Structures are given as C-alpha cells and as structure tokens.
Amino acid sequence: MNRLKLVLPAPEYKEEIMEYKKEFIENGDSMDGTAGLRNAETFEDWYDAFLHNLKEETVKEGLVPSTTYMAMSTKDNRLIGMIDIRHRLNDYLLNFGGHIGYSVRKSERRQGYATEMLALGLIECAKMNIRKVLITCDKDNIASAKTIRNNGAKLENEVQEGDRVTQRYWVTLDK
User: Fold this and answer.
1) Fewest CB atoms less than 10 Å from the CB: which of 87, 112, 124, 161?
2) Residue of 28, 21, 71 whose CA lies nearest to 47
3) Distance CA 94, CA 44 (A)
4) Which positions fall inside the N-acetyltransferase domain (predicted)?
C-alpha cells in the first residue's frame, strides 16, 4: 500500500488537476470526491472553494467542512484520483453521501488504486478523530462496493430515493 500518497491541492498542481478534470469530462464520468471540480469555471475558482471547504466558518451554506486530497503516484507523481473527507455528516450525507467520496481517473482504473486511496483516506479520518466512518455507493456500482468492503466496511442497509438505491457501509476505526 505505498503506490499512492495523499497530497493537499496547491497552485503548483494546477496543470495536473485540470488535466484530471478534462479526462473525466471527455469520458462522461462522474467526478466524486473532487469538491465540485467539474463545475468550477477555473482552477482558481475551484481552489478558492477547496480552501473555504476546510473550515466550518468558511464552508458554503448547506455544505459541511471537508478536506479534499489528491492521490498521487509515489512512482511518478501522476494524479491518479481524488478523495474528499467530510468532517461531519448532515442529513443528506447520513442517508446518501457518507463521510468519503472518491474517484479514480479512467486510465488508471482496475489496478486497485481505489482500495488503496480509501485505505489512506481512512487513516486521515482517524487523524481527524472520525472513528465511525460512513461510506456509500450506488447499488449498481459493484466496483465501488468491492472497494468499500475491501477496507473492512460492513453494509448496514440500502436507501431508495426514486429509482436510485444507495448502499450504506460503516467502518469503525481503532483508537
């Protein structure tokens, strides 16, 4: 589990982050765990939102504080994925979103990176004193469910909203 390292976004990663965004848009993929990168007009807009998300005092109304990390290859410093850790849950996150959202760029999938990213994210949760971590995925996202289970999560239940069924998994972290 040392192929990846979690790194906080910074202006010097602008090119890598925008290339990551481009790959997701070109492939029509959802960009989970990116703190709204898809909808940001510019890197600067996104980075400003990332900074505001870090603290309760500055997070946008209706959102919870969160920390977004880049999962970088330890071999060549390539941006493999992104993972967002929400510091607390609101009602929506409790039912559908969970503490953690993540994505891996399409060109790097099916290599175990998501499992490794989530394991690193759980270490960060422990550092934030989040001991009971909720991770969710769509029921039809078999790869994500496997990633979650590979990190010791137990399925609590499934929640339906319209045609969408969300699976809710919990991981309890040691103190």
Assistant:
1) 161
2) 21
3) 30
4) 11-174
Token pair recorded at residue 128 = 């934030």
Closest CA to 110 of 143, 77, 82: 143
**pLDDT one-digit tens code per residue, 30-84:** 889 999 999 999 999 999 999 999 999 999 998 999 999 999 999 999 999 999 9
18 near 82, Cβ under 8 Å? no
* pTM, full prediction: 0.94
Q: Is the per-residue pLDDT at 1 higher than 80?
A: no
Q: What is the CATH number of domain 4-129?
A: 3.40.630.30
- Which DSSP symbol is given to 55? S
Q: In this structure, what are the phi and psi dihedrals at residue 107, rounded to the nearest 5 degrees?
A: -70, -10
